[in-house]
Amino acid sequence: MSTKQCEDMLVGKGVRPTAARILVLQKLSERTSPASLFELEAELETLDKSTISRSLALLLEHHAIHSFEDGSGSIKYEICQSRSETCPVGDRHIHFFCEVCRKTSCLNNIKIPVAQLPEGYIMDTINYTVKGVCPLCNKRRSLKP
Amino acid sequence: MSTKQCEDMLVGKGVRPTAARILVLQKLSERTSPASLFELEAELETLDKSTISRSLALLLEHHAIHSFEDGSGSIKYEICQSRSETCPVGDRHIHFFCEVCRKTSCLNNIKIPVAQLPEGYIMDTINYTVKGVCPLCNKRRSLKP
DNA sequence: AGGAAGTTGCAACTCGATTGCAAACTATCA
DNA sequence: TGATAGTTTGCAATCGAGTTGCAACTTCCT
């Protein structure tokens, strides 16, 4: 997304579009896989870790981004694809965490299966993350055993 | 489970049944909801945090227990229900994390929906955790708004 | 019994993330 | 324009979960 688009998205979500927030959102929009705070820090050299952390918290609060744990030990962040105010959980895709290369990827074509909860439970979001071995590592493995 | 049963389970999984490991496994077997390292430490006063941590790592390795992230910031552990060597992911239940009381509970009747992965991906395990508001907190909320 | 291997507790450390605080910036209004 | 209140940012310190190095202890085997 362009800087302008990011700015517009922030305003649309009710967030004051500061330089730092635009940079964080734009970086997330450019990526093809979810990013951790650490990765964002490395890719946004001009911003401090704490500034990125606070920006992410604000973007999360205003539903401009999602977060989830993939088992890597750090929380992953991803821009919210849906432009609607409430991003329906059933529209969201699942993630795959490779235990060999420790990379998380989006399985964009596979949507999160939404379970029917018992009476009384209110669903906010679902973390559906598959752990295993990705095709690349799988191939690498079978070549040199 | 009795001490003897825990010991047998450890031996069956190929783990030397030391006092610490039996205590950790037994504590997990007694609980109705998953426990964090911190909780286990509090409930097992005679054992050191590091001993519990190492025991959990070993039990995980030998598939006597499962672990998953619920978004609380700490990893949760749960005894493996299935007595079979490989605990099939489709037999496992989903979890619910309440964002109000920050407690994780098992939804024993709801099994993890298993997605079909694209060619080349090897599935090891799935983390399916729903976040939201539990019935108790929901009720409490509606009483005093 | 004696020695090797495995296990445990303590303290120190690692790592991801957050917080307190002061400086810098922004918006608003006189 | 300049004063001022409110917001945002960067730095350093801190937090909290978890792991590791090491020495003491236990278990196992002959």
Sum up the structure in keywords.
3-stranded mixed sheet, homodimer, 3-stranded antiparallel sheet, DNA-binding, 145 residues
Task: Provide the fold topology.
The structure is a homodimer.
Chain A: H1 3-12, H2 19-30, E1 35-36, H3 37-43, H4 49-61, E2 65-69, E3 75-79, E4 93-98, E5 104-111, E6 122-133, H5 135-143
Parallel strand pairs in A: 4-6
Antiparallel strand pairs in A: 1-3, 2-3, 4-5
The structure holds a DNA duplex (30 and 30 nucleotides).
Give the end-to-end Cα distance of chain A, rounded to a whole number of Å: 43 Å
Oligomer: homodimer
What summary fits the major beta sheet of chain A?
3 strands, antiparallel
Most extensive interface between two protein chains, with residue counts: A-B, 33 and 32 residues
Structural class of chain A: alpha+beta
Average pLDDT, all residues of chain A:
93
Based on Cα principal axes, name the global outline of chain A. Answer: globular
DSSP summary, beta strand count of chain A: 6
Calculate Rg of chain A over CA atoms: 17 Å
